[in-house]
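Write out the 3D structure for:
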Amino acid sequence: MKTNKYITISLFAASIMFMTACKDSFLEVKDPTGEPLEEYYTTDAHIKEALIAAYDPIHWPDWSLGQYNALNIDAEIMDDNFWVGGANKADNIQWHKLFNYEGDANNTLSSLWTVDYSGVKRCNDLLKYLGWGKDLTEENKKSYEMQARTLRVYYYNNLWHYFGNIPFYLENLSSPYTAPQLKADEVYKQLIAELEAVINSNVLPMEWPSSQYGRVSQAMAYMMYAEMVMYQKDTSRYPQALEFMQKIIGDSHYGLMDNYADIWKESGEWCKESIWEINYDDNNNERGWSSPMAIGGTVMPTLISPNGFHYLKDYGFDGDGWGFLPVRIETYNMFNPADKRRAATCWDVRGTTYTNRYQDTHIWLAKYIAQNANNKDAGFDANLNYNNNLRVYRFSETLLNAAELILDKDPAKALEYFNQVHTRAGLPAMTSITLDDIIQERRLEFVGEGKRYWDLVRTGKAASVLVPDSYGYRTNSWTEKKKYIPISQGELDSDHNLVQNDY
């Protein structure tokens, strides 16, 4: 539960560390007190500010730098569970272009690139400042270091998934502020070695105390490790990934919630099923139309809710959503009527009247749907400040990862892991399973959580599943060339050595 917002950042700390894209100015760090950086970052308190600043970009993707890029939506618009929606095909045009696998340098996730490199830069800053600390305990120094290194892998992991072939550096750049662009496989090798070093240090706790929820943990690192090696299909590391999943499964802090729908309530945030979430809060928000990257809530529920919907008494929402990410009818129909996840996932308002938007099906993602109760404490610009945390890693994914990783060696154990998720949904236990069963269970379990697209790519199913639809919305097919999306024109102009992805 959110008794407070745990990891936050003040505007002061943000001003110390803020920067934008790959231009010279983004590498300039200034202390607003006027003290030289070498004198300011000598205390535990000030270095802790830099650590908090390194966390801050995880909150930015839903809206910053002129784009809406909620991470779950960025992935879901390229799969087969949703339409893009919005007002029309020109509304958030980069989503519509990427949905149809026709993105280009001017229609891509440009702000996501900048956000994640901002995070990388802030992590590098923190690691540099650690050497200046005069009153740091060895315990705090190691904790700050491993948090920053884990966050850096997280930011690079986002860039690697979407762009593949990216500039890579572990120390901040000097003039001319460029870094070698590594191939995707080389990026993976660097990241997985860095993540293994963090994990092997055993510095991070498996779970933080509730007052520190939002920090990266050992369990979060385990989940990111499994995600990366499975996406890379690095079979040599599957046994290690399985061991990490089994460590989480055997840890008493974690488990499945009895009721799937409870996960998505405010009271379900940081429940026993949650391994890592990105915190958002509507209390004392500083975020507004003039300050998109300040602390506060998320705009994502506004993005994915119906427009002109005035059924407060019946549905708890009376407002103007923007109509992005309508659920496909086929997605609703794929659920067994007995599957409890259907109602918790699909907000079915067929039969109600509101302002229809493009590709509107009258079915919406219930997990993050706008509810008036979730932004009632916002002081201003309430539609930007819902308090819904973004669930990134859940225990059910741990179980399904483990089932997939152990399937060939121990089918009975894989079935045990699988059935914990399957029967929680109210479905009868399976007696045997295949890899296809696990992938389908992941689809049902994680609708709207940004997992499906990556599963289709890594399992080789994307080319046969992501094809033109019967509605005429998606007219192109996914091909292997579409695995990495285009790098933005602004970045290509900033560094003429960057090579555009062959998209």
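The radius of gyration is 22 Å.
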